[in-house]
Specification:
Blueprint: E1 3-9, H1 14-29, E2 32-39, H2 46-50, E3 55-59, H3 80-104, E4 110-115
Parallel strand pairs: 1-2, 1-4, 2-3
């Protein structure tokens, strides 16, 4: 099963997470291509240091027009501006994947999206290949208490 793995965000903790990403996610996916759309900052160099990407784009976070969004504080750190930049990066990374598929005449069976600051403590479940990815979205439970 051919898999595209899309990583977005910042690399500030990648030196602590890259081994678990490799051992507990990437190695178990097998045949996968890695797409990375990374925020440009003083830690973005870690993308090339710790990961082997099929395609890597490092760009500054864009200044987004948030005038059409109601009930928000656009200047609060991690608020709507950070959320919208995250969605923008996810979109751009997915566009990279789609273009790669077209240019290389391939089709991915599944797409996995993750952040680089996530540490995978366990390997993917053995039955991961049997998950119904056409009808469900699977999300982590790392915000549960």
């Amino acid at each position: 099963m051919k898999t595209a793995v899309c990583f977005t965000g910042q690399c500030r903790s990648l030196e602590y997470t890259h081994e678990s990403i490799k051992n507990n996610l990437l190695d178990l996916l097998g045949d996968c291509d890695i797409f990375m759309y990374i925020s440009e900052n003083d830690s973005s160099y870690k993308a090339e240091k710790y990961m082997t990407a099929t395609q890597l784009v490092i760009k500054p976070d864009p200044i987004l027009d948030l005038n059409n969004i109601n009930h928000m504080q656009a200047d609060c750190r991690g608020g709507i501006n950070g959320y919208m930049q995250m969605l923008y990066a996810m979109k751009k990374c997915n566009e990279m994947r789609i273009n790669y598929e077209k240019n290389n005449n391939i089709k991915y069976d599944r797409v996995v999206r993750s952040r680089l600051d996530v540490r995978y403590f366990d390997k993917l479940p053995a039955d991961f290949d049997e998950y119904d990815i056409n009808n469900y979205v699977y999300t982590p439970d790392f915000h549960c208490s």
